[in-house]
């Protein structure tokens, strides 16, 4: 009898220690009105091999870079390896020292160059400096503004043809154009007519870039005013390694500002 009483008391204690919690579970059928926002994965989510080419003159070639890192072109293409959308990168620098816009047009007629342009995802370009220097050499002892503006009209037509030729071969590539600078500023920090000429040529280049719609212009003239920052090569015409580093940083800054993702149709994005 006493044993039975112990069992009853133990059972009551256990039942007193336990608690029952009732949870209200909503029916899954009542959630059929829940809507999810549509999300489309950007193209850069799946990295690809990116083809990059350099066109134009000595600035894209990297003349004056004592570290032999390929000037601004080599530095920017190296940075591109960290961009979203880049699995690996293949670059080909087709620029050449001394090349003018008329010579670039002839180069774009070559079959192997056309093949490179067709396959390119990104194109870097500098052009116009040697067109200006041609005028300087021709009028060395009688420099006046008029010949520079006569040549500018011709240059604008040739540059327009350069863009039309590239777009005829490749309508999707993003074109990044680096502007001109005034190497004569190393001789004087006073504003002069040549500075105005450089500004007008840069404006013409930038207008062509804007009209293209899938291109971006990076001005660099302010980076080479005088040589207090020691950005010139020993020839006092081309940038040195430090100058090219400044150009590369400016270009990446402008690539960000122009909207790389939009320009590349979602294919590329800067790594932040």
TrEMBL record:
List, alphabetically, the InterPro entries matched: Ester_Hydrolysis_Enzymes (IPR051532), SGNH_hydro (IPR013830), SGNH_hydro_sf (IPR036514)
Domain SGNH hydrolase-type esterase spans what residues? Answer: 55-245
Name of the protein in question = GDSL family lipase
Query: Which organism was this protein described from?
Result: Sporosarcina quadrami
């Amino acid at each position: 009898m006493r044993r039975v009483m112990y069992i009853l008391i133990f059972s009551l204690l256990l039942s007193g220690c336990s608690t029952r919690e009732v949870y209200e579970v909503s029916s899954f059928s009542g959630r059929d009105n829940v809507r999810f926002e549509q999300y489309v994965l950007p193209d850069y989510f799946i990295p690809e091999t990116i083809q990059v080419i350099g066109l134009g003159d000595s600035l894209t070639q990297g003349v004056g870079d004592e570290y032999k890192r390929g000037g601004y072109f080599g530095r920017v293409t190296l940075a591109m390896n960290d961009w979203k959308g880049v699995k690996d990168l293949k670059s080909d620098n087709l620029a050449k020292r001394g090349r003018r816009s008329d010579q670039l047009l002839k180069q774009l007629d070559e079959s192997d160059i056309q093949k490179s342009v067709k396959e390119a995802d990104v194109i870097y370009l500098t052009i116009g400096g040697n067109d200006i220097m041609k005028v300087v050499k021709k009028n060395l002892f009688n420099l006046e503004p008029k010949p520079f503006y006569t040549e500018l009209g011709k240059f604008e037509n040739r540059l327009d043809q350069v863009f039309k030729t590239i777009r005829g071969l490749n309508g999707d590539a993003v074109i990044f154009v680096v502007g001109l600078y005034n190497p004569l500023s190393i001789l004087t920090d006073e504003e002069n007519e040549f500075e105005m000429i450089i500004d007008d040529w840069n404006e013409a280049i930038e207008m062509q870039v804007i009209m293209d719609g899938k291109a971006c212009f990076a001005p660099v003239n302010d980076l080479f005013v005088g040589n207090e920052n020691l950005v010139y090569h020993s020839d006092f015409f081309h940038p040195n390694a430090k100058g090219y580093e400044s150009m590369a940083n400016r270009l990446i800054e402008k690539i960000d500002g122009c909207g790389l993702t939009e320009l590349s149709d979602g294919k590329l994005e800067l790594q932040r």
